[in-house]
Write a structure and sequence with these properties.
Blueprint (H helix, E strand, L loop, with lengths): L7 E5 L7 H11 L3 E6 L5 H10 L4 E4 L5 H15 L2 E6 L6 H4 L8 H22 L3 E11 L11 H21 L5 E7 L13 H11 L8 H12 L10 E4 L18
Parallel strand pairs: 1-2, 1-4, 2-3, 4-5, 5-6, 6-7
Length: 264
């Protein structure tokens, strides 16, 4: 018997086998969840489809989360396929490389709007369409990072987007709670993924992080996946509106070892 036997979930954000969303998918499937997947653009299908099929998934659809019509179409198909949802995973973030490689004060208007629309509003858009499908006890989860609370050099506009994402989680949790749906965020430590490769000085960040956390260990996809299982399961039935840290305790520490210049 798995913790998630009988539960059905839809996952947005798998790009390849290194994605945090893929670690979550593996953990949910291992506990018995039936999963569907959505990929963002055509060229990602060749990576996502084999991964999804390896978990027995048959619902694999393309969806641009910045297009309301596509979101509605995907969820209409999901309703016919699953006849209700228990889990929605939002693991989506994007900012222009140019805006990550220069000081935040020079963020362009278009780049700011792009980061906010793709990284933040997409959660609102997905939750709005998913909510009528979600059964009591349902769980929506999004991925955030400590850079939304404190300044992380090189994170720039994405840090501002994560702060807005966490605020959105709280407001959605308040509104969907009476319907029996919980909304939470997972704040993971730095993990090598397709998106983190865009952050200047990311390797230095990993080294500093490993030396600074109380546990002296890097976070893995599996670590995040296990917290996702908790949030998807009935064990977290009274947990909502939270950002749960999976970072080896880094967030409790003060500044150690001087500052690190991530941009070099």
């Amino acid at each position: 018997m798995g913790l998630l036997d009988g539960k059905k979930g839809l996952i947005f954000g798998v790009a390849n086998k290194h994605s945090i969303a893929w670690g979550i998918a593996q953990a949910l499937a291992a506990e018995g969840a039936e999963l569907g997947f959505s990929y963002a653009i055509d060229k990602l299908e060749r990576r996502v489809r084999p991964l999804a099929e390896s978990l027995g998934a048959t619902f694999i659809e393309q969806c641009d989360v910045n297009d309301d019509a596509q979101i509605e179409a995907v969820f209409a198909k999901a309703q016919g396929h699953f006849e209700g949802l228990d889990v929605l995973v939002h693991s989506i973030a994007f900012a222009d490389m140019e805006d990550l490689s220069r000081d935040y004060i020079y963020t362009g208007r278009e780049g700011f709007l792009t980061a906010m629309e793709t990284s933040v509003y997409s959660l609102v858009a997905l939750a709005r369409v998913a909510a009528p499908m979600m059964r009591p006890g349902g769980s929506v989860m999004a991925m955030t990072y400590y850079g939304g609370e404190k300044v992380v050099p090189g994170y720039n506009v994405m840090g501002v987007a994560k702060a807005a994402l966490e605020a959105s989680v709280r407001y959605l949790a308040s509104e969907l709670g009476p319907k029996g749906v919980r909304v939470n965020a997972i704040s993971a430590g730095p993990i090598k993924t397709l998106s983190t490769a865009m952050i200047p000085g990311f390797r230095k960040m990993l080294h500093f992080y490993e030396q600074s956390t109380p546990l002296r260990q890097l976070v893995t996809q599996d670590d995040v996946g296990q917290i996702a299982v908790f949030l998807a399961s009935d064990m977290s039935r009274k947990t909502t509106g939270q950002a749960l840290f999976v970072d080896g305790g880094y967030n409790i520490m003060g500044l150690m070892g001087g500052t690190v210049d991530m941009a070099t």
